[in-house]
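Batch 3, record 17
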Amino acid sequence: MPTHSFKLGVLVSGRGSNLQSILNQIEEGTVPAEVAVILSNKENAPALERGRQSGIKSLFVNPKDFTNRADYDSALVGILKEHGVDLICLAGYMRILNADFIRTFAGKIINIHPSLLPAFPGLNVHQQAIDHGVKFSGCTVHFVEEEVDSGPIILQAVVPVEKDDSAESLADRILQEEHKIYPEAVRLLAENRIRIEGRRVSIQEFTE
Ligand code: GRF
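Prediction for the assembled complex:
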């Protein structure tokens, strides 16, 4: 793995395919960043194994070791600070972060969500899109704010909904786009090319 000064902390709970797409792009040299630490609230998350395979410190932080959510989140803050992270990527992290965590890393937390926000925030997103009858769905990389799936939008990709789509088939096609736009958003942030004004995010031209 190449080393870089722009350090990522990645929070995961499950499969870790988005984590993998970021790791792959770092390995290929397209994303000038380094994953400093991976944290999971699930011991058996395959994402942890992916991290370990890449030689990255990958820790299970057990929620049961903490009396409440605030203590848990503040333990995560401690580990992320210890590793000097510049950006926190939520990649299938299935816990809501508390306000202190979000304030501590204000403007430095991003998430990938499998719909075209602000449509279909929350869970069961693909079924919601199909049931609603939308012709297009997709995915969104956005900054994380206290309200779930609400922060300024960095990148989106559009995916048509086919008439015979199931939640699974739609999820598979959207996931392929997630794997493109998530590493791309990390690259833009690592290159310091993202500016936020209110809700609007602009991307600066690349200058050496
Ligand atoms: C992805 O669909 C992502 O959009 C959502 O959770 C899923 C995580 O998948 N937030 P993976 O763990 O990255 O494979």
